[in-house]
Amino acid sequence: MIVFFALACEADDREKLALIYEKHKRIMYSAAYSILFDSYLAEDAVHEAFIAIARNISKLGAAESRETAAYAVRAAKTRALNILERNKKEVFLDEEAVDIAFEESEFDRVIAKSEISAIAECINCLPQKYRIVIVLRYIDDMKPSRIAQNLGLKTDTVKKRLLRGRAMLRDMLEASEE
Question: pLDDT tens digits, residue range 74-98?
Fold first, then answer.
């Protein structure tokens, strides 16, 4: 926390940063953990996010505002994605995450026939390049353009990977039903 205060020079900025830290650290951690599935890496992502917040503290509104909360969560997710890319960490899902994400999606027809555990297992079996875009799109509800930006890809590439990933997932789920 001392590092963050050192980055925020003015006393008002230090107060605002302390408030942001106290108000939003838990949700930032949850957002980072939902991407990384590793508590230590999620803590690193939150730490990196607070460094970025400290650098831009004067541009932020009130610590309690929804915009500041959204910015803090986006910063944590972005840092988590950066860590994920840096480490080339495999993304694996648990059944609960899949259950929540696919509750009201285009896969309702498939979910009605399949168990959630089978869906999580099938997603985990996808090749990494398809798995990560499926997770970011349907679990984290990111738009393809944002996914492309975070992964350093073209939007068309992300859309194509989503298309192919969904097709592979559909085929795996249909094969597991038989």
Answer: 889 888 888 887 776 455 555 555 5
- Determine if the pTM surpasses 0.70: no
Region label for 129, one of left (φ > 0), alpha (ψ between -120 and 50) or beta (otherwise): alpha
Asked if 52 contacts 7 with a C-beta cutoff of 8 angstroms, the reply is no
Is there a contact between 102 and 111 (Cβ–Cβ < 8 Å)? yes
Q: Torsion-angle region of residue 23: left (phi > 0), alpha (psi -120 to 50) or beta?
A: alpha
What's the pLDDT tens digit per position in 26-62?
989 888 888 888 888 889 999 999 888 888 887 888 8
Helices 66-87 and 144-151, axial angle in degrees (round to 10): 50
Rounded to an integer, what distance in angstroms lies between the CA atom of residue 92 and that of residue 33? 12
Report CA-CA distances (Å) from 6 to 22, 28, 55. Answer: 17, 21, 10
CA distance 90 to 41: 13
